[in-house]
Amino acid sequence: MLNQEKIDALRYADIPLQGHFVDGQIVPSASGKTLDVLSPINGQVITRIAEGEAEDMNRAVAAARTAFEDGRWSRMAPATRKKVLLRLADLIEERALDITVLGVRDNGTEINMALKAEALSAAQTFRYYGEAIDKVYGQIAPTAHNILGLVHHAPVGVVGAIVPWNFPLMIGSWKIAPALAAGNSIVLKPAESASLSLLKIAELAAEAGLPDGVFNVVTGKGSVVGEALALSMDVDIMVFTGSGATGRRLLEYSARSNLKRCYLELGGKSPNIVFNDAKDLAEAAKVSAAGIFRNSGQVCIAGSRLLVQEDIAEDFIAEMVRHAQGYRIGDPLDLNSQIGAVHSLSELEANLAFVNRAEAEGAECRSGGQRILEESGGYYMQPTIMAEVKPDSDLFQNEVFGPVLAVTTFRDEDEAVTLANSTVYGLSSGVWTADLSRAHRMVDRIRAGIVHVNTYGGSDLTVPLGGVRQSGNGHDKSLHAMEKYFDLKSAWIQL
Ligand code: NAD
Q1: Catalytic annotation, pick one of 110, 118, 227, 265
Q2: Which of 150, 193, 214, 426 could, after both became Cys, cross-link 73 (CB 3.0–4.6 A)?
């Protein structure tokens, strides 16, 4: 499906001004305000989106509430809802390249990765939850014989979803698909810098037969429309992926409004631990490099702390440097690029500042550390490897969310575990060892939502993704993800 000619035909296509998608209609902001959308590929404005305010958000929430209460979707037979979601999956798949190119233009992920991780993965997600919905049963409780105790799965009502700019379609679908499958209405607030592909999905959902008002998208600034959504008295739960700082705000908004449940998927500083008994260190270095550098490190589960056993450290770092320097970095819409752009100039500057602070704290830059291709106007950065990173340093403790790897050595298994668990995060991790018992011990001892063993970053829809500690509390993917979109409702019936 991927060929450069097709991509080039789409890359310069005019993108008209984008409105909100509310109650089945594309509408401008009440204020008429818009925001410029910059492309990280070349720093140019590619289109404008509606800049929503509280009034726009409240209108969308009201549409979602009405749709939920009148049952146009919430009381539709699950088998019928399933048909709509499967049709949506087909439509996304049919237009996968158009949607992916649109998304790459505002977010900068290399197209090779984006096609699979964005449009095609979104199609799979709608199909997965569409297929699941007519297989969810309630329960009969083991009560006394003259009582019938029923446990229903009731949709929660109006779901508010806020998603980040990295993999907006994949992460957005992980929330939209199970929320819709469960019969809820939804109001989505995409990141202001990466709204385009999600707006397209809302249009396709309507084309697939989703009734008006069930899926609404309001664009604009997080601090304005995001806040209005999370403060709304008419939103029943919030599902969020993004930074810890915004996650904290959502909890405050919940406390200040209607105590809505908030499911938070937050950042990470994931340890990737390489023992000297790993079977294939060359393979470990190759996979570990991809595990931090693909999508310029803008992956929530990126293995951003390499913990390597001290007797193999220098050789392993050298191998990682070889991979870091071998990547072809550039225009994410060029099929030859293995790594695309950093999402925004402010992210790029933040990444470089991390490198400078790390050097000031005594870390050694073994590779990269610089902005490149500045003449393109776009935002590109070399994959960067910082060694001798101390456990109490800024780079060891805090998420960069860019192509910067922190390397620290350890002596033995206990020290590896202590280092792995010594940040506030707990999202992902990796362990490379040929010792099966050690692998199991590490799975047990690492405090993280995911432990990869002898690989890094692999996953599919069948396993949950989510963190522990300050990496969050919700899980996307798998049938477990559906649980948050239902309330348990008991019926106690005297016979
Ligand atoms: P962010 O928190 O700045 O923004 C996320 C979303 O929140 C955006 O839509 C933004 O507009 C909105 N927002 C910002 N301020 C808000 C406010 N006051 N009220 C309501 N909404 C507000 O995060 P980001 O920079 O877009 O994304 C990067 C972060 O996301 C990283 O920390 C990354 O690790 C994390 N992330 C986590 C996962 C996961 O599954 N755990 C996946 C991807 C990204």
Answers
A1: 265
A2: 214
